[in-house]
Specification:
Strand content: 15-25%
CATH class of one domain: Alpha Beta
Protein name: Glycogen debranching enzyme
InterPro entries: 6-hairpin_glycosidase_sf (IPR008928), AGL/Gdb1 (IPR010401), AGL_central (IPR032788), AGL_glucanoTrfase (IPR032792), GDE_C (IPR032790), GH (IPR017853)
Structural class: alpha+beta
Organism: Salpingoeca rosetta (strain ATCC 50818 / BSB-021)
Shape: flat
CATH architecture of one domain: Alpha-Beta Barrel
Pfam families: GDE_C (PF06202), hDGE_amylase (PF14701), hGDE_central (PF14702)
Helix content: 25-40%
GO molecular function, one term: amylo-alpha-1,6-glucosidase activity
Length: 1194
């Protein structure tokens, strides 16, 4: 948004609400609005400026197309032109003759004034007795209340031998009056007739239809479906479907008309009984609601004290307005239905709200019965608008309100949606779309009283709400307020920033909120917070979101100005006005000078990058708020001493602290406190005049000159105490310790440039790029991975993996072990996580990673680089360490990942995110293995079948697994020498033409599988380019292997037919079922630990009898690609299926894909969480997809 000619964010907004009636005539606005600008507010929120209805409330709009004539004059066109000119001029910066202000206005969508002229032509725009006939009984009850009130006022109602009193003084009077009302009206009104079926009439209708009816043959019983409500409502509008009812009775065996009538009568009496009971409940609820209203309005001393009950001030407020020109209010008899004397289309339901009801629900609906139950807290000056489900339901209203919205958006930079929570979402969305069609960058603010964060988010996203509005005065203690500041103040100090190695998924978060120290339609702090006006707004000013208040708050007005029919005017800005002046406002008035300073601080903090906040609830009265710039480590802190009414203030001054931090308190920006706690209030009928109190206010002073602040130490050992008075505020700057800042800057540069080549003197880079490029696959395996069993071997000195207290051991010793944990913590910004606590407590984890890198020559440069970073990292502020740690790990991991992908893959092969994930995951398995026999000299390496179960020792290396994974994990990534070494190692132990399944270090191989030889030979073919044709093939999901490597054995038609069957029966949630689910031996859940009586699954016997294996997925979809008639469709099918595997690899801490899944893709706890063949076979699939795409493109 543009403010004073500059583009600003919501975090810089300081909003002040003004009432149009108190601004006075339009010609006097400039000097009155100048007060807001002089107080440091940069945004003006106008309550509605449109023509007001008879109540003189700005929110009860009489005509949405006109401005209020008493303010802008009677010439509607000229009024709008003048207002546009004013907004443009006031929006200019001060040096160009303006005030640098941004303007917002309310948009009111739920109601219109009951004296709105267009209601006569378009009553269908509202809920009338015609458009909502279910409201008719509520209207009858409403009119009875009016007639009863009229008679009580005239002393004409007797009950139990007494005249019903018009003056209600006690709750006993209330009960007596209500007893009298229901005694006089219950039988006379006969409200049940609006709901029940007229039994005699229904029987007569059925008898008329009985002779011609044919028996129903469907078995339909007598039930509620046989009753319907007549269009238009009215008494006994519930009718039976006579023809259907007669047919049903005959179908039930009734051939005698009288017996059928008796059966129907029994059914209808039972049906009506439920309705009588429901109406009794409704009337009980109505009585309770009426009692609460009467007690509040006439008995409670804090209520409005309405006085006598009369026709003009009825017992309770009325729910309906008669907007007809020919209205007749005379109704003299409770037993005479008022529906006969009115035109129902002009009887309109007034708007309001229902206590403790979801405000997003339609309380006018037939199901809610809220008007009949008298549950609606009504706004008697306005009628509720009826939009329906779409513009087709009420075209004129939609067009009218969209036109109103577009005009507002063309004049103002922002809209505040009035009562957004009770505006139907589809209506709000359409109106905001209309606004954005005129002003795409329009600011949208709204209050949402949904009592559900999920609903708030839904409204915010649907309507495109920029910021919610929350009232600070909704809190009841300093603790409540500090919690609000913490929740909506912005990101906490030390928060995480984006990670370079991967965009993190969007996560649930609460909507942004602008905090209002006071609002225009609720109580002022003076009624709730004892001399804490300034602490409220000073602490709010520290948040990294919008803030605001309402005019006269800073002038210490005791009671808020009335929204309805307010006569007093705001005082204008008069530069030399004294603090007691009735004529004007200046720096001396109230707390204006202090508020201006805090508003300025608020804007400057946002402009200068102070994006983080820390809230400290020190004790029952004292709260502090700190804003920090995460780049420069500069901080600004505000302390406030606030006392809510009802809390103990006998302690008076108090000392708080000591507080420790690193740096220097360089300047006190504001210190303000009341010199006395008694406020003199002046009552003025013509002007809004606040209280007079003596405040000490000092700005931009040396800390030594502030008696409230006691400072000791300095640099890294700074400490301070504060001695504060109730109502005091102190705000100061903290400049960081230079040494800590230098270390922080150096670390930031080191991690930013890590692994990037330094091409010239002016390029940011380091000398690690060459060392990264020289790393082997085994180096990568060491730097990134090595699970606990691998790292516990003698070759690794039994070091294991790092154990995070409160979380547990990481999955890997390499840097990838901590990456998934960092991703989780960063995505949630979980600064309280065990990882963050460990990082703040010491530098052990970073030191462990560095030490791990030192163990291998090819990774030692990484250990040395980390040593250099750690030497500086240990000196940065503790609260910054989790974020810096995450960046160090992420940048180093990103450099390794980038290097691995660049070296191992073609520039055009597997370049997408999932392909990169798989390529890096393939490095998990190929690493050092001191027990593995190699055919020639050099480092001893092997391929693990899966981690952690097959990580080390005699169980590490398997023939079938190795050669199933070899092409994907080694050949496609161009690790030819590594593949050759493995082939030669297994060739040394071939016996009688068999390749061992379990290698067992070459000392005791197991020759217990035939297909290991086949995959071994296939690997040789892949390495040397053999063209040997294979005729052997396997059934079940394995047949796809033969289809992939020997497609000539199959005709396309039969191949696709078989693959279709596999899609139907074998493709599971995450893998290929190893057996048809219809097979009697199908057992899909593998639990190796089970040792029960069922032999079919005991001790993992069903390993091949139903669990979903992942590696055959690669062959299945590769076969699809080979035989597809439409390759593009086959590629799309494969990618859709692989999306679930991409999601899995990104969320598992193992950063891989498992050996197998259980039924429907559920987790198999006994599976290896990351398996070589699963990775390798999917890499082969992605490789084939890439080649197929390339051929399609060509």
């Amino acid at each position: 948004m543009m403010l004073g000619g500059k583009e600003v964010t919501i975090a810089r907004l300081a909003i002040q609400t003004v009432l149009p009636t108190s601004l006075g005539p339009f010609e006097e606005w400039w000097e009155r609005i100048l007060v807001s600008a002089k107080t440091g507010f940069n945004t003006i929120h106008f309550c509605p400026l449109q023509e007001m209805g008879g109540s003189r409330s700005p929110y009860s709009i009489r005509d949405q197309t006109k401005l209020e004539p008493s303010i802008f004059g009677s010439d509607a066109g000229k009024a709008k032109e003048n207002l546009r000119d004013f907004l443009l001029r006031a929006g200019k910066p001060e040096n160009k003759g303006g005030m640098g202000l941004f303007f917002i206005i309310d948009a009111v969508y739920n109601h219109t004034s009951k004296d709105t002229p267009w209601l006569l032509d378009h009553p269908e725009a509202c809920y009338s007795l015609t458009t909502a006939p279910h409201l008719q009984p509520a209207f009858v009850l409403d009119q009875a209340i009016w007639l009863f009130s009229k008679r009580v006022g005239a002393g004409a109602i007797e009950h139990k031998g007494r005249t019903v009193p018009a003056d209600v003084k006690t709750e006993e009077d209330v009960h007596f009056v209500l007893d009298a009302f229901f005694a006089h009206t219950h039988e006379a009104l006969k409200l049940w007739e609006f709901f029940v079926v007229d039994v005699d009439a229904a029987i007569a209708d059925m008898k008329t239809a009985f002779a011609r009816a044919k028996p129903d043959s469907t078995g339909q019983p007598l039930d509620e479906s046989l009753v319907h409500t007549r269009t238009g409502g009215g008494r006994f509008s519930a009718r039976i479907r006579a023809d259907t009812c007669a047919a049903v009775l005959k179908g039930l065996g009734f051939r005698d008309q009288d017996k059928a009538a008796k059966e129907l009568k029994s059914f209808l009496e039972e049906y009506n009984l439920k309705l009588y009971k429901q109406l009794d409940e409704d009337m009980a609820a109505a009585r309770t609601a009426m009692k609460h209203t009467i007690v509040w309005e006439r008995v409670n001393p804090r209520g409005p004290q309405k006085g006598r009950i009369t026709a003009q001030e009825p017992l309770v407020y009325l729910y309906f307005a008669n907007v007809s020109k020919d209205r007749q209010d005379e109704w003299s008899d409770f037993a005479t239905c008022p529906l006969t004397t009115v035109d129902p289309k002009y009887i309109l339901a007034c708007n309001g709200w229902v206590w403790n009801m979801d405000p997003a629900k339609d309380f006018v609906s037939k199901e809610k019965r809220s008007y009949l139950r008298r549950e609606v807290i009504i706004w008697g000056d306005s009628v509720k608008l009826r939009y329906g489900d779409s513009p087709d339901d009420n075209p004129w209203l939609w067009n009218h309100m969209c036109s109103y919205t577009r005009e507002l958006a063309s004049m103002f930079g922002g809209l505040r949606i009035d009562n957004c929570h009770s505006t139907p979402k589809h209506v709000g969305q359409a109106m905001m779309d209309a606004a954005r069609a005129v002003n795409p960058d329009i600011l949208v603010l709204a209050e949402l009283f949904t009592q559900s964060e999920e609903t708030d988010i839904e409204y915010t996203n649907t309507l495109g709400i920029t910021s919610l509005l929350l009232e600070c005065m909704s809190t009841h203690s300093a603790g409540d307020y500090s919690a609000m500041l913490h929740r909506y103040g912005g990101v906490p100090v030390g928060s995480f920033s984006a990670l370079p190695h991967r965009p993190l998924p969007l996560v649930h978060t609460h909507p942004r909120a602008t905090l209002l120290a006071a609002s225009h339609d609720n109580e002022f702090p003076a009624t709730k917070v004892w001399r804490s006006d300034l602490p409220l707004i000073a602490l709010a000013a520290m948040i990294h979101n919008g803030i605001g208040s309402t005019r006269c708050f800073e002038e210490l007005l005791q009671q808020n100005l009335a929204v309805v029919n307010e006569k007093r005017k705001y005082r204008p800005w008069v530069e030399d006005a004294g603090k007691d002046s009735l004529e004007g406002v200046s720096d001396r008035t109230g707390i204006i000078a202090a508020v201006r300073r805090m508003n300025t601080i608020h804007r400057q903090l946002a402009a200068k990058g102070f994006t983080e906040i820390y809230i400290d609830h020190i004790d029952a009265h004292c709260v502090s708020a700190t804003r920090r710039n995460p780049d420069t480590l500069e901080e600004v802190t505000t302390f406030a001493y606030m006392v809510y009414r009802g809390h103990d203030i006998s302690t008076g001054e108090k000392t708080i602290g000591p507080f420790k931090r690193s740096g220097e308190i360089s300047r006190v920006l504001l210190n303000a406190f009341p010199n006395a706690y008694h406020v003199e209030y002046t009552r003025c009928e013509r002007a809004a005049v606040g209280g007079t109190v003596s405040y000490s206010i000092r700005e931009d002073v040396d800390p030594a000159a502030v008696k409230s602040l006691l400072i000791g130490g300095g640099g890294a050992d700074l400490w301070y105490r504060l001695r504060m008075r109730p109502g005091e505020v102190i705000c100061f700057e903290v400049t960081p310790d230079k040494s800590a800042l230098d270390h922080h800057t150096a670390v930031a540069r080191a991690i930013r440039t890590f692994g990037r080549p330094n091409a010239g003197d002016h390029d940011e880079g380091d000398d690690h790029a060459g060392a990264l490029a020289a790393m082997t696959a085994v180096d990568m395996n060491h730097a990134l991975f090595r699970c606990i069993r691998e790292n516990e071997t003698a070759a690794y000195r039994g070091d294991g993996v790092y154990d995070v207290p409160g979380y547990g051991p990481l999955k890997y010793a390499g840097i990838a072990g901590v990456v998934p944990l960092i991703e989780t913590v960063v995505s949630q910004n979980d600064l309280g996580h065990a990882l963050c606590n460990n990082v703040r407590a010491g530098d052990w984890l970073l030191g462990y990673i560095a030490a791990h890198m030192h163990k291998r020559a090819g990774t030692r440069f990484l250990g040395e680089a980390l040593d250099g970073i750690i030497a500086r990292y240990k000196h940065i502020p503790t609260n910054a360490k989790p974020e810096v740690f995450a960046q160090i790990v992420s940048h180093v991991y990103s450099a390794l990942r980038r290097t691995a992908v660049k070296r191992l893959l073609d520039t055009t092969t597997l370049t997408e995110g999932f392909g990169r994930d798989l390529a890096v995951a393939a490095l998990q398995f190929y690493g050092t293995d001191a027990a593995f026999l190699m055919p020639e000299g050099g480092e001893v390496v092997s391929m693990s079948a899966g981690l952690p179960h097959f990580a080390a020792g005699w169980m590490r290396c398997w023939g079938r697994d190795t050669f199933l994974a070899l092409r994907g994990c080694l050949l496609i990534p161009k690790l030819f020498d590594e593949a050759k070494h493995l082939i030669l190692a297994f060739a040394r132990v071939v016996r009688h033409g068999l390749v061992p399944n379990l290698f067992d270090n070459g000392n005791n191989p197991r020759y217990n599988c035939r297909d290991a030889t086949w995959f071994f030979l296939q690997s040789i073919k892949d390495v040397v380019g053999s063209t040997h044709r294979y005729t052997d093939y396997q059934l079940r999901p394995n047949v796809a292997i033969a289809m992939t490597v020997a497609p000539d054995l199959f005709t396309p038609a039969r191949a696709n037919h078989h693959l279709d069957i596999c899609d139907q029966f074998l493709v599971g949630g995450m893998g290929m079922r190893t057996l048809d689910p219809h097979d009697w031996n199908y057992r899909p859940n593998y639990v190796n630990s089970y040792d029960g009586p069922d032999k079919a699954i005991a001790k993992g016997w069903n390993y091949h009898q139903g669990p979903e294996w992942l590696w055959p997925v690669g062959f299945h979809f590769r076969a699809r690609l080979k035989f597809a008639k439409e390759r593009g469709k086959a590629i799309h099918q494969a990618n859709r299926y692989l999306a679930r595997h991409e999601a899995h690899i990104q969320r598992t801490p193992w950063m891989g894909l498992p050996e197998l899944f259980n039924e429907n893709g559920s987790e198999c706890p006994d599976s290896c969480p990351t398996q070589a063949w699963s990775i390798g076979c999917l890499i082969e699939l992605l490789h084939d997809i890439h080649e197929q795409r390339s051929s399609i493109s060509v």
